[in-house]
User: Fold this.
Amino acid sequence: MDTENVMNIFIFGGTGDLAQRKLLPALYRHFKAERLGLQVKIYGIGSSSFDVSSYQQEIKKKLSTNLESIEYDEKAIQKFIKIISYIKIDFNINTDFDSLKKITSNKDRNIFYLAVSPIYYKVIAENLNKQTLIGLHSSIIVEKPIGNNLQSSIDINESLALYFKENQIFRIDHYLGKEAVQNLLALRFGNIIFEKIWSNVAVDHVQITVAETLGLEKRGPYYDQTGAIKDMLQNHLLQILCLVAMEPPTNINSESIRDEKLKVLRSLRPLKANETNDHLVIGQYKDGAINAKPITSYLDENGVNEESKTETFVALKLWIDNWRWSGVPFFLRTGKRMAEKRSEIVIQFKSVPHNIFDLNNKQKDNQLIIRLQPEESIKLKIMIKKPSASGFHLQELPLDLLFDDYYEDDHLDAYERLLMDIIENKPSLFMRRDEVEEAWRFTDQLINSIADSEISLSKYNAGSWGPSSSDLLIANQNAQWNNEED
Ligand code: BG6
Assistant:
């Protein structure tokens, strides 16, 4: 970063959960590693009354709980909080934005991070503009969900586009900041061995699982209005799907990658209401246990309507209508309160065309398992001959690459990575407007099909892998979800 330039990072929602749990710890790590320039200032902005020093003390307190103890360095924290200030602003009152005008001009590199509910995006952008705070070097950062359906996402995008150019708008999907998600690009396009078999020629089906053990974490009212389809599928799962299914981009530039992702989204086959039973399972957790700890049902969570029909699990069989993927089903599933925290992609290859071994040799088809979290690994299951004095016996074994074996300390958290890209003005890990809108187009259609169909909500025990109907969904492909323990 050019240390000559003044850079102001304004965090709207500076007292909120995202700022305290993710953004400020990520900025602290960059500060400590001297990755922030000397001229960086951070401003927490909110409607609560704090003076600067009590805000700094509050940040210090929160850092002590949100950082690993090994990262907590009293001296570095003391220095870090000195670059932080607090400004009280009512987002709806334009004259409140005067206080920003007093400390910055539109010549500075101003980063406006909107860690607030999307209902404030429009008014904040308007007020920044009225106070002429937006210059050529300004960026605005917004978090998913960008809207709640296609129309509201268009409205949000329109209101930002009035004051910011597309390359000044950073739409965050934090999954794109995960090291492992980016590694998909390296795996696919940095190696020749996969490309020729990465299609309907050799792939039987693809599974994408994002399973969480977490429940609602005090977000009951938001979640009950949202559900798994809008909270996870519309963004994180579709983004992973794009990276798995896209064509090779011409280069690593943001526009090339986003162009290819957009083509995947445009090729998704809309689900018709009369097909939902064969293609979709929606579920909601009931009582259960995770790691021997009892878990109460979704309907008993705070902020959830006692008759709620909101889905906490979704499994979907979807089709990508293009040359490469014709005839290959993609199975996506995500859910809360499942058996394990696990995000992974399974590429299930087809059987060999002709089996030369005798019937006693049960042959398994190759599988490539890309684990994104909690640990990052790539496992290719292959058949080998089992050593023996006589006979010929096949056995399946994994070629296993566990990233921690090679990179112990190098892991940046997703927000650390994304914040650095914002500071350095690199947009490839952020969603372009057309991608977001296309993902909503597909999601709206899916939600309308559910509404028009007879499909009902299946209950599943907390701590399980979801409703049994989701096993049937994939069993129709003569396959099963990879729920295997390592
Ligand atoms: C968020 C969702 O986008 O992602 C949460 O709103 C979910 O409901 C979270 O828990 C999962 O993120 P991660 O990084 O823990 O897999």
